[in-house]
Design a protein that fits this description.
The chain has helices spanning 21-27, 30-33, 37-53, 59-78, 90-102, 115-151, 171-196, 215-221, 231-236, 239-266, 293-316, 331-351, 359-368, 373-382, 387-404, 413-417, 427-431, 433-439, 448-461; strands at 156-161, 164-170, 198-199, 226-227, 273-274, 356-357. It is mainly α. Helix 14 packs across helix 15 (387-404). The chain is elongated and about 100 Å long. The model has no long low-confidence stretch (mean pLDDT 95). The structure holds arginine.
Length: 464
């Protein structure tokens, strides 16, 4: 191969031939990391400000750099900025343009810094902003759930184990179960934010720098709680991205479970809820269809987020200290996890308040499944029958009800008394579904009174 001029002005010095064209494309990240431009510029402004404070740059140089970077931000936002694959990544594209704009001072920006601490800083700043946006969407969804739970605090539906009717519950109570899942997700998210909120800036390539930098100052300028402790760890650590994806996977698991229930409930066989038309789509061949596409897609998208978590764990598992180019592969999974979570939360937060409960249908389903069988057993225990014997008596009553095609509450007193002489007229109060749920009147129980108290506690926890 003939000797060519090195193509890269930022690191071309020691090279005697240009980068292979394929290698250039293969190693470039600018197509996807340009998304970090605003955070890259913010980090650079903080770095330049710090360099001026410690006397490595003059105030005039700092101001020139800040003016140039601000102009570049404008160019990127307006779409006129020319991204160049030969400049590899977002960092070198911006730096090259800065030098074009302000000349030699532009070349001073990278003093006491490396792309290794730069990119680590950028991703943390990016993710911190996204976490804050995601947190707002999570709270919007949680608030929507609480509003719906409040409206449906007394609505009776069958509660399931093994997807078989188990005991009656209130729909409000069921929705609060979803709320609890999201509450844990939110606490994991905020926990992740706390740990990521440290500044790697100043770790430089891996060992720190010989300039008299003030890492605490640049950390403070960027709103980080402190500078990271160890320079080697700072440039190689991507735990925060993994933690975020772990949060995201679990959140998506919860949204997927809720989606599965919405899909089941909208089916003709269940017919528990109605989703508004704007969240559903039709079939091109079957005119009667109204498909719950939005929850189905959310359920489906949980797969790709799980994939991103595994991708990042695998990316990191064999990396020696400190920075390795492998780390460039952190961005696409992280970006997609962020985008997917935001879209799915938005879909849910918009959709949940628009769910209509089909109360009559829920009630009829609860009646069909002998949902008060446990209540009858508990009743017999209160009359002095041992629980195992009560279980047996109720089992025979249910078998009789199945043969007669009648729910327990529809059997006459005489019919019920065939199975136990302990059964008296007062049994009908507990065989109703309303009586059954009202009796589960303790912290965490399904009684409407408890559901309302739980909603009040939940609202307080959201700071409403
Ligand atoms: N594009 C790189 C990344 O995303 C930036 C850091 C490159 N550092 C280096 N020493 N090649 O990780």
């Amino acid at each position: 191969m003939s000797k060519k001029t090195p193509s890269n002005q930022q690191w071309g010095g020691r090279f005697s031939e240009a980068t292979d064209e394929f290698v250039q494309r293969f190693t470039a990240s600018v197509n996807f990391d340009q998304r970090l431009y605003a955070h890259d510029i913010k980090g650079s402004i903080a770095h330049a400000t710090m360099l001026a404070k410690v006397g490595v740059l003059t105030d005039t140089e700092r101001d020139q750099i800040i003016t140039g970077l601000t102009q570049i931000a404008g160019e990127i936002e307006s779409g006129e900025f020319q991204w160049q694959i030969e400049l590899e990544d977002v960092h070198m594209n911006i730096e090259a343009r800065l030098t074009q704009l302000i000349g030699i001072t532009g070349k001073k920006l990278h003093t006491g810094r490396s792309r290794n601490d730069q990119v680590a800083t950028d991703i943390r700043l990016f993710l911190r902003d996204e976490i804050d946006a995601i947190d707002l969407e999570l709270v919007r969804l949680q608030t929507g759930l609480l509003d719906l739970a409040e409206r449906e605090a007394e609505t009776i539906m069958p509660g399931f184990t093994h997807l078989q009717t188990a005991q009656p519950v209130t729909f409000g109570h069921h929705l609060l179960a979803w709320f609890e899942m999201l509450k844990r997700d939110r606490s994991r998210l905020l926990d992740c934010r706390k740990r990521l909120n440290q500044s790697p800036l100043g770790a430089a390539a891996l060992a720190g720098t010989s300039y008299p930098i003030d890492r605490a100052y640049s950390a403070e300028l960027l709103g980080f709680s402190q500078a990271t402790e160890n320079s080697l760890d700072s440039v190689s650590d991507r735990d925060f991205a993994i933690e975020f994806c772990a949060f995201a996977s679990l959140l998506m698991t919860h949204l997927s479970r809720a989606s599965e229930e919405l899909v089941i409930w909208t089916s003709a066989q269940f017919d528990f809820i109605e989703l508004p038309d704007r969240f559903c789509t039709g079939s091109s061949i079957m005119p009667q269809k109204k498909n719950p596409d939005v929850p189905e897609l959310v359920r489906g998208k949980s797969g790709r987020v799980n994939g991103h978590l595994i991708a990042l764990l695998t990316l990191m598992k064999s990396q020696p200290l400190a920075y390795n180019k492998d780390n460039q592969e952190d961005k696409e999974p992280l970006f997609d996890a962020v985008d997917t979570v935001k879209d799915c939360l938005r879909a849910f937060a918009d959709m949940v308040p628009a769910i209509t409960a089909k109360k009559a249908s829920m009630l009829a389903a609860a009646k069909r499944g002998f949902a008060t069988a446990t209540d009858l057993a508990d009743y017999l225990v209160r009359k002095g029958v041992a629980f195992r014997d009560a279980h047996e008596i109720v089992g025979r009553s249910v078998a009789y009800g199945i043969a007669q095609q009648k729910d327990l509450a529809e059997l006459s007193l005489a019919e019920l008394q065939q199975f136990s002489s302990h059964i008296e007229e007062d049994v009908f109060a507990i065989l109703t579904l309303e009586g059954s749920v009202a009796l589960r009147d303790h912290w965490g129980g399904t009684a409407p009174k408890q559901v309302r108290q739980a909603i009040a506690r939940a609202r307080a926890s959201l700071g409403e």
